[in-house]
Amino acid sequence: MPHVIVEWTDNLADEIDIRALLELIAGGLRDSGGIFPFGGIRVRAVKLTDYVIADGLGDDAFVNITVKIGTGRPADFKQQFFAGLFDRVRTFFASVHASRYLALSLYVEEFNEAGGFRENNLHARFQLST
Prior knowledge:
The protein is of the alpha/beta class and 130 residues long.
């Protein structure tokens, strides 16, 4: 963990480099000071082709980022870390935001470990390289 899902409206396709956004988010997670192990980081995007924004009349756009993490991280760390990550996302979209109507959001969801099932041997690769 964490797993990140970036939902974005397809009317942004000519204005953003979605891969660069995913790399920005993944890089931020890797820079967590070990709070988020490399082997658990997953960042993916879902381009939305069916959506309605506000009154449905404009060429409005949105990007919603959902970060799913396990419980146990201190509240002050989460607030500071994710506020910083959101600031980097806002900077990434600054020129788009200045030229069109755009809604950006980032939500952090904590899940109960008893409610999920996982198997991951990626952590072993990173333990070998350190």
